[in-house]
Amino acid sequence: VKITSVEPYLLRFPVDPQRYEASSKGWIRDRSSLLVRVWSDAGVEG
Fold first, then answer.
1. Sequence spans of domains, the chain
2. What is the number of H-type helices and E-type strands within the chain?
3. Are the C-beta atoms of residues 38 and 5 closer than 8 Å to each other?
């Protein structure tokens, strides 16, 4: 999944797309089991 934006509280951390596992409805789950909403250039991807 191509990450172009994340929730503001996560912007202070480095964003590495390879750390994230894509799931349904545009949510991704990182290795810490935090759910992060992501948007792609083409719209929400899941």
1. 1-46
2. 0, 3
3. yes
pLDDT for res 10 = 46
Question: In this structure, what token pair is assigned to residue 29?
Answer: 């789950």
Count other C-beta atoms under 10 Å from residue 38's C-beta: 21
State residue 6's pLDDT score.
Answer: 54
SS3 content of the chain, % helix, strand, coil (to 5): 20, 30, 50
pLDDT in tens, 14-34: 555 555 555 444 555 555 545
Question: With the CA atoms of 35, 13, 17 and 8 taken in that order, what torsion angle do they form, in degrees rounded to the nearest 10?
Answer: 50
Classified as helix, coil or strand, 10 is helix
Q: How confident is the model at residue 39 (pLDDT cuts 50, 70, 90)?
A: very low
